[in-house]
Design goal:
single chain; alpha/beta; 2 domains; 9-stranded mixed β-sheet; 8-stranded parallel β-sheet; 13 helices; binds pyridoxal-5'-phosphate
Length: about 425
Amino acid sequence: MEKDTAPASTNTSVMDVLFTEKCDIEILDATKSISDFMDDKIKERHSVDSEVPFFVANLDDLFQKHIRWLRNLPRVKPFYAVKCNSTPAVIRVLRILGTGFDCASKGEIELALSLGATPDQIIYAHTTKPQSHIKYACTRGVDMMTFDSEEELLKVSACHTKAKLVLRISVDDSKSAVRLNQKFGAKLSKVEKLLERCKELDLEVMGVSFHVGSGCTDSSAYRQAIEDARHVFDTAILLGFQMRLLDIGGGFPGNEDFHIQFDEFSEVISEALDEFFPADSGVQVIAEPGRYYVESAFTLAVNVFAKKVVMDDVTEIRGADSDTVMMYYISDGVYGSINCLLNDPAHTNVAPYLHRVVDSSERRYQSIIWGPTCDSLDRVTDTYWMPEVHVGDWLLIDNMGAYSVSVSSDFNGFDKAHVYPVLSAHTWNMNVSHS
Ligand SMILES: Cc1ncc(COP(=O)(O)O)c(C=O)c1O
C-alpha cells in the first residue's frame, strides 16, 4: 500500500509498527465504514446463533483525541491511565502516538512493558503499593512513582532506593462525581513533614501530583489544585529537592455530551500553568487521562434474547406511566460491560439504540432493559422510550470505552464482550513522528 505524506514525520508508519507486532487490528479500506463492520459482525453472530456481546473499538478516534490534546494542552504530556481500558490495541496505538502510561500495579507495568513501553515512559501512579510490586518496578527500571504517606516511604526506601518520587497531594474534589481525595493524597498541612522524612531517608522527590476526581463539573478545581501544587513545590525547593515534574492527574471528559467540554478544562489549565509553572520554569508537566482517550472510541453491541410485554399490571412497575411497558433482556449488563451504572458515577448516560433503521413514525414504548444475570440490580434502563424491539435484535450503546472492558466480570456464567479494534486504511498508512 502507498503511504500518505503526513506532516512532521519520520519514515515510520502506523502500519510498519503494528505489522511487526502481529496484532488483531482490522483495517477498513475506504469503501468500508465502521457501521458496515458492525453489520458484518452482527450477521456473523446470527449465522452461528451467538448472542455474545461485542465492542467495536474505533482506533481512529484515539488519533483524533490525541491531536486535540496536543492542540489544547501542548505543554502537558499525557500518560494514559492503563486501568481505564487495557485492551492491547489501545496501548499499542497510544504508544505509537507517543503517550506515556500511568500504571497502578505490577500487572499493568508488565502489560505496558510487554506492549513496547519503556520504563521511563511509565509512572507507577498508586500511592499505596504492595511491597512485591515496588520490588518488581525496581527490577524493571520503573523509577517514577507516587506516594502520600510516611509508611509508603519506608517501603520504598527498603525496596527501591533509586525511586524518583512524586508527592500526591489531596485537592478539592467536591465538584466531582468520582471523589478520590479521601482515599489518596497528603493534606497540605502534612506535606512539609513528609518531605523532611524523605530527606532523612535519603529519598529523591522530583514532583507533585493530584487528581481532581472524575466527572468534574467545575474547571476551576484544576486551577486551585495547580496553585496548591505550586506551594508544595516551593516548600520542597526550600528543603533542597530538585523539583521538576508536575502531574495534573486525570478526570478529563471522554465524550462531547459531558456538560463541560475538554476545551474549557484545557483553557483553565493552560492559564494556571502559565501563572504558576511558566514554560521557562523548567518543570515538565504530565497528566494521567483515562476516559478522555477511550470513552468515545468504543461502541457496545448487545443482543436482545428475551422480551416481556406488560399490559395488565403496569402500575406495579417502578416509574411506569403508560399502558404498555416493554421489558427486554440483553446479553450484557451491569456486571459486565455496562458496570459503569454501578461503579462509575462519572458515566451515567447509557443510551441504547436499535441497530436497525428506525422510522420516525414508529410508536415508542416505555422500555425497561435488563442485563442477563439473575440479579434484579442488573437493570440497564428504567423509564426509557424506544421503538419496539424483537427477540434477536441487536442494540448499540455508544461511549462505552471507559472502565468497561477492564472492570467487566462473567458473573452468572455470561460471556464477556469481545473487543474488535478497527483502524481506517488512511490512518494505517499514516506516518507518525516519535518524540
Ligand atoms: C491516579 C489516577 N490517575 C488517573 C485516573 C484516570 O481518571 P480518568 O479516567 O477519569 O481520566 C484515575 C482514575 O481513577 C486515577 O485514580
